[in-house]
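Key idea: predict the complex, not the pieces.
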Amino acid sequence: MRDARNKPLASGRPATIAAFKDAALVGLATLGLGFPILAYRTEQNISNQLIIEPRWALAFSFAGLAFALRLAWLMTSAGRSSIPTWSMPVLSKRAGDTISRAGLGILLAYPFLALWITGPGGAIKWIDNFGIQILIYVMLGWGLNIVVGLAGLLDLGYVAFYAVGAYTTALLSTHFGLSFWLCLPLAGMFAALWGVLLGFPVLRLRGDYLAIVTLAFGEIIRLVLINWVDVTGGYAGISSIPRPTFFGIPFNATETGFAATFGLEFTPLHRLFFLFYLILALALLTNWVTIRLRRLPIGRAWEALREDEIAAKALGIDTVITKLTAFAIGAMFGGFAGAFIAARQAFISPEMFVFMESAVILAIVVLGGMGSQIGVAIAAIVMVGGTELLRELDWLKAIFGKDFDPTQYRMLLFGLAMVAIMIWKPRGLISNREPTIALGAKKSISSSLVREGHG
Amino acid sequence: MEQRGGTILAVEHLTMRFGGLLAVQDLSFSVERGQITALIGPNGAGKTTVFNCITGFYRPTQGRIALTNGTPLSRPLLDRLTGSSLRHLREGTNEVFLLERMAGHEITAKAHVARTFQNIRLFSGMTCLENLLVAQHNALTRASGYSVLGLIGAPSWRAAEARSIERASAWLERIGLIGRADDPAGDLPYGDQRRLEIARAMLTDPVLLCLDEPAAGLNPRESAALSALLRTIRDADGVSILLIEHDMSVVMEISDHIVVLEYGLKISDGSPESVRDDPKVIAAYLGVDDAEVAGAEAELDATVAGRST
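Result:
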């Protein structure tokens, strides 16, 4: 089927016949693949027996649909050229700066815009579900980007560090009464420590093996959290974690609360605004540190490690230290995000740190373009914002009837979107690498030259 | 500091065994300071294995690889170091390293042995300038206060960074690639990539530069330019060179000393002239005709007969 696409379908009969053959093959394949699912359905009859109900019409209509779509694809221009891949227009430094500044301005104004447009009722949803939720994933994506995008080490257990940060904050604040502002750096430190602990055993592993061990590490942490009931509370998790305060002033309706202190009318929105700016600051810190580190010897060593570990070693770079710092710093930002989530939710449980979370964070990094800060941010907005938006597809009921439940199709659409991006942009939304330094003007480097690392 | 003459690298009784295969067998040779030493031999002779042992990519089965910094190799110091469990020993200005005890990156960072690879290993997605900055990693890491000073943008770090860029630019100028400083290394033509890899190795401040087939795939003009570059590295930078090469015109032109390997054994060692006329070397490269084999067998028979009487 691939060669049919690459062969230029010259005008005339042979090409048409080839297209028909190809489409017929696709139709047959669909019939074969769909046969067990579509052609028969097991049902219970009145006397409670299991019977098979044939659905040949359904199976054939799907095969026919596949045939027609394939034929249309081959006969139109889309099939004639190879898959079109568009590349981001290369922005000049000034244009790039303008966009970054505009983006930052929008982010700073976002809670006020949300309040102004949707009113106090709607603003909660837009600030909490969209703003804060997306920024958490932007931060996690940027943290994982250090490990996966820069150092080229595939980490499938990143959620473990998120969990370590969250549980550190929860335990320290509920048992020892430490404030959020003390727990935050401690959570980062503990997560970094665990990053080093994970780093040691996987130093010699590459590719698939590294991925599997990191995945297992994530699961181990989760299972420990579930089973060490005395400390972690098991499935019940830890609740009534103290909320973050405005440098000591709580967000409540009391005399000493934030609203009273500043002479404002009490509203729960104050806390949301605060949380929004807090996670924004944490995410921007992650970004700033990453950008800075990329221009330092350690950042270049990470990228050198991704490009060619043997050459890096031959240049006197200690690959052990280099890998461990990547794991530790990536984990530290995961720990910060964990501290934030614990304080935001006031409740955490092992259910929040399942493998699916690691997969989503990794998907954000891969879709965004490994190593690209802005790409990861866009991917986080699309992935997290997109799934949230898909909850709001009630208008589809007007088309598909009352029984249609759009939330059931959320993951399907999500998966389709990911497949589409991987076809059109196989190396992520922004796949070009920005050099860290230049004598003249910086030229972005085509993704075809940049290696993805060995694992 | 530059002292001509005297051994800089002494390889003694080096043996490397891979399972049942003896890749290198009881090999001893030395590299003299300020000279270009060539390691030649037919394919599969074990040349790259020797390189990998010297640069720490393999741990030799047996043997000693000693390198000295600055002064001629001091035998008593080497003996004391060998008897101890240390990896290097310093006495005054004398410092000796036992490379077979050191890890790969330490050999470059501490003993200052740099290498290039037979199949070029540049960081293809990084620019030429970035490649040359990565080579200065250890010095720059110290200058960046292990990233702390660098993160806050301290003036001392900025100055160190500017110096490292200057050094990289000077090398780019020297190998004629200054115009392509901001292009990815993977985009360069083959010959330019070879030169860039040599410049990158040189920026680790080596005392010994090990080049694995630097002229492979170069046209005659590029080969001549490479010979000139290697000579200036020897004469102007005072760096000793050990190279593996198949291109005999390059080897004969620039080498001061040649070591010939065949099937892991040293078959000849000496000046280019003596090696060129050595019948064993000619036999290894060209094969021997039947008459010579018969002659050699007759000689052997006579010796055996002489011994038995």
